[in-house]
Each structure stands twice: as structure tokens, then as C-alpha cells.
From TrEMBL:
Protein name: Cytochrome P450
GO biological process: cholesterol catabolic process
Gene3D superfamilies on file: Cytochrome P450
Similarity comment: Belongs to the cytochrome P450 family.
Entry keywords, A to Z: Heme, Iron, Metal-binding, Monooxygenase, Oxidoreductase
InterPro entries tied to this protein: Cyt_P450 (IPR001128), Cyt_P450_B (IPR002397), Cyt_P450_CS (IPR017972), Cyt_P450_sf (IPR036396)
CDD domains: CYP142-like (cd11033)
Sample GO molecular function, one term: steroid hydroxylase activity
Length: 433
């Protein structure tokens, strides 16, 4: 998604002509200008589609928080992504992300324990090794496509945690991107809905086979397979949906947080220079990068009964789409919201959501992002763009698919990188429960 700093008059945007569902608009249009106008003039804004479906766009921080926090008024059971607006989600009540408490809680509590900071601490050296290997090509000094290079990064921490073999990582990275950007030009036939169906089918089939082949041992899939839901074990379809959700949750977000943050550094070299080698400063910069990029662009809920939001009546069964990228620029919450400020305090961003569905992978994502930027800061004194930036056509992932850059290396960095290039990617299991 294009990240802009809108500065024209609010009236320049015709809110009734805007189509926030259009994936291409997020790659080539100006969503930030639209959201700024919506927050000011129509913070809960109804969009009608030509086929009769409609949804409410929720753009203010407080309203987004009110929706995400309140599962009794706003359910996840009918699906949470605009791509299936109006359709019943087959994963409803089976996948953590598409369920409400108490079913949701029964799945989430055990998973949250194995994905906590404490449980993941021992993984850090492995992830650091992966980062070093990933960064090794910059030693050559030539243009390096950062967006392409980091696209597969989550496989090395989430895929590895799930015990997925390294030979499958590129295939799974491709499929998860296709699931959230089926209309993107990189999927050449441009089949849109067809691509979505294909991606879902192949991913579900892949996980079903892995679960049934019982090759998993002490990994996250094994953990899910042994998990109790009340009196019973999880069923195959429930394990498949949750595997899908975990991998998707990691793959289609983390790389884009990295790319958009580095692009912000290209545009704001003074902010990059401020980080230095202080781990706390790196952690703060990661949070600002999350606010700035808001890689998970929206989540949807349905109103359980007639209600109201921000004074706007909401009918039972209506879909509400919370735009996290907009909430994270709300001038009511963030001072100077369009300034990229690596030391921003406080930083109450909603990039990981809020309430019962608050990202269960947030500790893992934060660990991976802090390690990535810690290594990057140690190696690179700055960056320049080496070609055009291409944005992903997706209304769900605010993403970058190509971003060639050149990296200015610090003294001695080239030798360190060359050494790291030979390290193997760790692939051993992982979890004890
Ligand atoms: C920068 C990286 C990430 C961002 C921005 C992000 C964002 C989000 C957001 C906004 C939600 C809330 C969904 C809702 O309210 O319906 C969420 C939930 C979720 N995320 Fe993440 N995520 C990231 C990384 C990860 C990782 C690494 C994993 C896997 C380990 C993951 C797995 C999930 C799952 C399974 C849920 C559903 C949680 C639930 O329903 O309780 N995410 N994520």
C-alpha cells in the first residue's frame, strides 16, 4: 500500500466515490487521504457495492478499539476479511481468528503460552542467524531487492516453529501472498477469486497432508494436534484452519513491516541515524515502524444485533471494517501522526489489534523485527532506493512487493556478512509443552 502524507483540502476527496474494497486502490491510490477525510467527516462510513452488499468503514482509533474489544456486539464468527464479505466463513467456530469466546478462548490460551516471550526466548540465536544469512547479499554493494529478500523471512521463524521443511518454504510463501492478494499482477493470470480459491485449497490440502502424515513431533503442529478443546482433541479441520491462520498471520505481515520501515528510513535518514546501537531505541523504532506500516490493513466484524457506533446506527448483521492504518494516523491520539518518529512516546498503535483477538503472534513478530533491525543497524549506515517501489494490490495487507535498494555498509560490515552467508538455517524442533 502506498504510504503518503496527505496535505490537500479534506473536501478534495469524494467519499461516496471511494472504493476501499478495491485492492488496486491500495497499491496505486491514496488510502491515507481517504481515511483522513473519513475520520474528519464520516468516521463510520457506509459503502454500498454494486451487487447490493455493503459495509461500514470504521476509521477512528476509539471506534476501531470499541469494535475490536467487544466480541458480544461485534462477532468474528462470520469471517474477518473483506475478501469474503457477506459469505459464511467455513472456518467460523473452527479457527481461533474466526471464533468468539468461549471457543476462541479454549484455543487461544494454550497457544498463547507456547508463543509467549518466555517460551520463545531460546529461539533468538537461531532467528539472528537467519537474519545474518538473509542480509549477507548486501556485502556485494549492488542493488538488492529488500522486499523480495524478506518475503520468506517468517518461514524461518513461524514455518520452522511449525516444523515445516525448508524445501516447502518458497511454495508456502507464494501461496500465502496469493491468499491475501489474489488480484495482484504478480499472479499473472489475474484470476482474482480463482486465485483465492486455489491458494486456500492448496494450503488446506498441504496442512491436512502434513497433519495426517504425523511427521510433526515436538513442533507447533504437534502441539495443536495434542491440544484439548474441553473434553476432546482438536479435529483435523480445526487443526488445518489454525495452521493456515498462524502461517498467514506471520507471512503476510512481518515482511511488509520491514520493507515499509526501511522505506521510511530512506525517506527520513535523520530518524535512522537516531537509533544508534541501543536495543531500547531499536525496540521503539520497531513500534513506530509497526504504526507507520500497519501491515494488517483491516479486520472485519459483524454486528450481532442492532446497535450504534460513534452515533451512527448499525443494523444487525451489518459488516464493520476497522481500518488499522487509519486508526494509527488518528490525530486525536497521535501527535503529528504523519511524522515518522522512531522515539515516539507514547505509541498506542493498533497494528496488532486489540481485545480478545490481539495478535497471538505479537511476541514472535516483535522478537523477529527487533533482531532484524538490530542486525541491520549494526551493518548499515544508510540506504538509497535503486529502482521503483512496487506496492502490493491488496485491501488486507498494506504491502510492498519490490523495493530495490543499495545499502551503505559500516566499516568491517562486509567481512562479517560474508562469514554469516555460510551459516546453515536451523531446522530443528523447538517446543516443549
Ligand atoms: C508484524 C507482524 C504482525 C502483524 C501486524 C499482525 C497483526 C494482527 C492483527 C491486527 C490481529 C488481530 C485480528 C483480529 O482482531 O481479528 C492478529 C491476529 C492474529 N495473528 Fe498476527 N500479526 C503479525 C504477526 C503474526 C505472527 C508472526 C503470527 C504467527 C505466529 C500471527 C498470527 C496471528 C493469529 C493466529 C491471529 C488470530 C488471534 C486470535 O484470533 O486470537 N501474527 N494479527
Amino acid at each position: 500500500m502506498r504510504i503518503t502524507v496527505p496535505d490537500g483540502p479534506l473536501d478534495a476527496v469524494d467519499l461516496d466515490a471511494v472504493d476501499l474494497r478495491d485492492p488496486v486502490f491500495h497499491a496505486t491510490g491514496d488510502p491515507h487521504a481517504v481515511w483522513r477525510a473519513m475520520r474528519a467527516k464520516s468516521p463510520v462510513h457506509r459503502q454500498e457495492l454494486p451487487d447490493g452488499r455493503s459495509f461500514l468503514s470504521v476509521t477512528r482509533h476509539a471506534d476501531v478499539g470499541a469494535v475490536l474489544r467487544d466480541h458480544r456486539r461485534f462477532t468474528s464468527r462470520r469471517g474477518t476479511l473483506l475478501s469474503i464479505l457477506g459469505e459464511a466463513d467455513p472456518a467460523g467456530d473452527k479457527m481461533m481468528a474466526a471464533s468468539d469466546p468461549p471457543i476462541h478462548t479454549a484455543m487461544r490460551e494454550p497457544l498463547a503460552k507456547v508463543l509467549s516471550y518466555g517460551a520463545l526466548r531460546a529461539r533468538q540465536p537461531d532467528i539472528r542467524l537467519v537474519v545474518r544469512r538473509l542480509l549477507a547479499p548486501v556485502a556485494d554493494g549492488g542493488p538488492w531487492d529488500l522486499a523480495e529478500a524478506v518475503a520468506g523471512f517468517p518461514m524461518a521463524f513461524t514455518g520452522a516453529l511449525m516444523g515445516l521443511p525448508e524445501r516447502d518454504w518458497p511454495y508456502l510463501t507464494e501461496l500465502t501472498t496469493m491468499a491475501i492478494a489474489p488480484e495482484d499482477a504478480s499472479f499473472v493470470d489475474g484470476a482474482g477469486h480463482g486465485n483465492l480459491v486455489t491458494a486456500h485449497h492448496e494450503l488446506f490440502e498441504y496442512f491436512a497432508q502434513r497433519i495426517q502424515s504425523r511427521t510433526h513431533r515436538d513442533d507447533l503442529i504437534g502441539f495443536l494436534a495434542r491440544m484439548q478443546l474441553g473434553e476432546r482433541r482438536m479435529r483435523l479441520d480445526e487443526i488445518v484452519y489454525n495452521c493456515y491462520s498462524l502461517l498467514l498471520g506471520a507471512n503476510v505481515t512481518t515482511p511488509h513491516a520491514i520493507a515499509a520501515t526501511v522505506l521510511a528510513f530512506v525517506e527520513n535518514p535523520d530518524q535512522y541515524a537516531r537509533i544508534g546501537d541501543d536495543p531500547d531505541a531499536v525496540a521503539d523504532a520497531v513500534e513506530e515502524g509497526l504504526r507507520w506500516s500497519s501491515p494488517a490493513n483491516h479486520f472485519m466484524r459483524y454486528a450481532v444485533a442492532d446497535t450504534e457506533l460513534g452515533g451512527v446506527p448499525v443494523r444487525a448483521g451489518e459488516a464493520l471494517v476497522t481500518w488499522l492504518g487509519s486508526a494509527n494516523r488518528d490525530e486525536r491520539v497521535f501527535t503529528d501522526p504523519y511524522r515518522f518518529d522512531v522515539a515516539r512516546q507514547p505509541n498506542r498503535h493498533l497494528a496488532f489489534g486489540l481485545g480478545p483477538h490481539y495478535c497471538v503472534g505479537a511476541p514472535l513478530a516483535r522478537i523477529a523485527l527487533r533482531l532484524f533491525f538490530g542486525e541491520l543497524v549494526a551493518l548499515a549506515s544508510g540506504f538509497e532506493l535503486a529502482g521503483p517501489v512496487e506496492h502490493l494490490s491488496s485491501n488486507f495487507t498494506a504491502g510492498i512487493r519490490r523495493m530495490p535498494i543499495t545499502v551503505r555498509l559500516r566499516e568491517h560490515a562486509a567481512a562479517t556478512l560474508r562469514d554469516a552467508g555460510g551459516d546453515p538455517i536451523p531446522s530443528d524442533p523447538i517446543l516443549s509443552d
